[in-house]
Amino acid sequence: MVVVRRLLYSQKAAPYLFIAPFVITLLAFWLLPLARTFLLSTQEVVFGQAAFIGLDNYQRLWEDRLFWKAMFNSARYMVLTIALLIPIPLVLAALINSKIGSDRVKAVFKASMFVPALTSVVVAGIIFRLMFAETGTGLMNQIVGVFGLDPVRWLRIDTGGLIALLALAMWRWTGVNILYFLAGMQSIPEEYYEAATIDGASRLQQFFHITLPNLKPTIVYVTTISIYGGLAMFLESFMLYRGNSSPNDQGLTVIGYLYRRGIEQNDLGFASAVGVVLVVVIMAINLTFLTLSGTFKKESAR
Amino acid sequence: MSAEPATRTRIQLPYWLHGSVQTALLLVLTLVVLAPLLIMFVATFQDGNDVIRRGLSLDVDRSSLSLDNYVMLFTDSGPYFRWFANSILLTVVQVAGTLLVSSFVAYGFAVYEFKGKTALFIAVLLLMAVPFEIMMLPLYVLVNDVGLDDSYSVIVLPFLAAAVTIFYFRQYFLGIPKDLLEAGRMDGATEFGIFFKIVVPVAKPAFAAMAILNGMIIWNNFLWPLLVLRSESKFTLPIGLNTLLTPHENNYELLIIGSMFSLLPVLVLFLLFQRFFVAGMTAGALKG
After folding, report:
1. What is the pLDDT of residues B117-148, one digit of tens each?
2. Could you tell me which residue ranges the ABC transmembrane type-1 domain spans (chain A) (predicted)?
3. CB proximity under 8 Å: B 193-222 to A
4. A14 chain-B contacts, CB cut-off 8 A
5. B70 and B184 housed in the same domain
6. Residue A184 structural domain
7. Does residue B156 contact residue B93 with C-beta atoms inside 8 Å?
8. DSSP A99
9. In this structure, are B84 and B136 located in the same domain?
10. In this prediction, does ipTM exceed 0.90?
11. What CA–CA distances, in Å, run from B35 to A137, A160, B54?
12. Which helix (H) or strand (E) holds A190?
C-alpha cells in the first residue's frame, strides 16, 4: 500500500504512467508489426510456412510491371490533387477573408464546402459512381451533353476514371483546405495590410507579397498531408470501381496493389515488400518535412 | 519582380460590383458542392434499380417519386438498423476511450520532464502524419496471428492512443497555468487526482473539439473494419452499405436511402457544433 501511495504522489514516476499507453501502442501496434512486415518481406510464405528468400521479393517487385503501374497511378493522383487542392482553396479562402461581400453568404459558403468532408468515403464513392454513370442520363454525361458532346464511358477509360477520382477528391477536400488556409490567413497581423495599403499596394499585390509569404507554414503543412493522402489513396478508387479491380487496372494504386497481393491473394511476403517500400518512402518524406519545418530543433530546445 | 512605376492606371471595379461578383461566385459554388447530395436526396424517392441503371440524373420523372423507400427503411426487418446501432455503439465507445487515453498521455507530455521525452514526442509527430493505409497489412497479419479477427476490440485498441488527439491535448495542456497544478498538490491530490479533478474540467473545449473530430472519423471508418469484421451481424454502417453495392445483393433502394440516412447523425452534430468541427479539423495545422 505504501508503495502504491508513494507511486501515486511521485512526480518522478507519474510521467511514465501517463505516457505508458502510448509506449504500449507504439510497441505493440506499430514497431512490432513493422518489424514483422520487414521480416516477412524477406520470406516466401506458402500455407503458413515461411522460408527465407533474402531480397527475392524486392527483386520481383522491381521487375513487376503492375507495381510500377500502381506507383505511377498513385504518384499521378498525388501530383494532380496537389495542383488542384492548393491553389483553388487558397484563392477561395482569400475571397472569404476579404472585407468585401456579404458575411452571411461567406458563412453559408464555408459551412457548405465543409459538408462533403462529413460524408464517408463509402457514401461519397456511391454518389460519384452514380454521377459518373456511363449512360446518357448520368449527371456528368448530361453536363457533357450540354456542350454537344457524346456520352462518355467515364469509368471504362483511363482519363475518365482519373477525372472522376479528382472530382471526388476536390469535392471532399476543398472545404477542409479552405479552413486550413483561412486559419493561417487570420493569424497574419492586420497591420501588415494597413501598411501596404498606405504604400498604395493593390489587393492583388498584397495577396502575393503579404498573404502568400506568411502562409508558407500552412502551405507546407497542407502539401505534406496531400503527399501522404495522395500516395496512400485507395478507398476512393475502391468505391468508385466497386472493388479493387478496374478496367486495365487504371484505378490500381500502390495500396490497392498491396491489398490485392497481401489480402486478396495472401502472398504475404511479396505484399510486405510493397509495404516496406511504401513505409520507407513515406517516412523519408515525413522526416524531410519535419526537418525542413524546424520541428526537431524546436522540440529539443524545449 | 520589376519595380512598380510610381503612377499606375489600375482598373478598379466599383466596390458594390466587386462584392456582388464575389457573392454570386460563392453562391454558385455552394450550389455545385451541395448538388451531389441534393440529387442523391431526390434519388431516395425514386426506384433504386432505376437509379442504379440510369445513374444519378437531373431529369427526374416526377410521377415516379414516392415514399416507398422510406416506408421500406423503417418497416423492413433488414440488417440496416442493426448496422446503425453497431456504428453508434462503436463510435461512442471508441470516442470515449480515445479521449480518455489520449488526453492522459498528452498530460504526461505536457507537464513533466522525463528521460526519453523528446524521442517519444518525435514518435508522436511521426505517427501523426502516417496514413493508416501503410499499417494495414502489418496490423492485419498481427490480428490474424492472435486470432482476434471479427472482434470490436481489435478495431478500437490500436487507436486509443491517437497521435493527432495526443498532440492537440498537449498543446492545450501547455497553456494551463502551472500554479493551478501546484495548488492541487498543496491540497494533497495525487498526480492523477490533479489530472482528473483539475485539468479535465478546465480542458472541456479541447475535449469537445476532439470528441467531434474523432466521432466523425470513427463513424466513417471503413478500411480497418473492412479488414477485421467478418460476420454481417457485426457490420458497421460503411461496411454494410458497401456490401449492398455488389450486384447480387440487389437491394439498391436500401443502398441509396441507407447512404443518405447514415449522414444524418454527423450532419446534425455539424449544424449544432460547427465551431468544434473547425477547431478539430484544423488541429494538425497548428503545429509549433
Report:
1. 999 999 998 888 778 888 888 899 888 888 88
2. 71-289
3. 193, 195, 216, 219-220, 222
4. 108, 112, 191-192
5. no
6. 67-301
7. yes
8. S
9. yes
10. no
11. 16, 20, 17
12. helix A190-198
Distance CA B209, CA B214 (A): 9
Task: Give residue B288's pLDDT.
Answer: 37
Strands A49-52 and A43-46, by their bridges, are antiparallel
B65 is in which domain, residue-wise?
A: 15-74
pTM (two decimals): 0.89
The C-alpha cell of A209 is what?
A: 507579397
Residue A49, classed as helix, strand or coil, is: strand
Q: Write down the pLDDT at residue B2.
A: 44
Question: What is the grid cell recorded at B97?
Answer: 476511450
Give per-residue pLDDT as tens, B59-71.
887 888 889 889 9
Nearest CA-CA partner of B168 in B283, B59, B256: B283
Q: How far is CA B265 from the centre of its chain?
A: 12
pLDDT computed for residue B249 by the predictor:
61
Comparing CA positions, the residue from A285, A165, A288, A292 lying closest to residue B131 is: A285
Q: Identify the domain boundary among B28, B43, B74.
A: B74
Could you tell me if A133 and B54 are in contact, meaning their C-beta atoms sit under 8 angstroms apart? yes
Query: Residue B89 corresponds to which cell in the numbers above?
Result: 455503439
- The total number of structural domains that make up chain A: 1
Residue with cell 496490423: B139
Q: Verify that B88 and B175 share a domain, yes or no.
A: yes
Cα B13 off chain centre by: 42
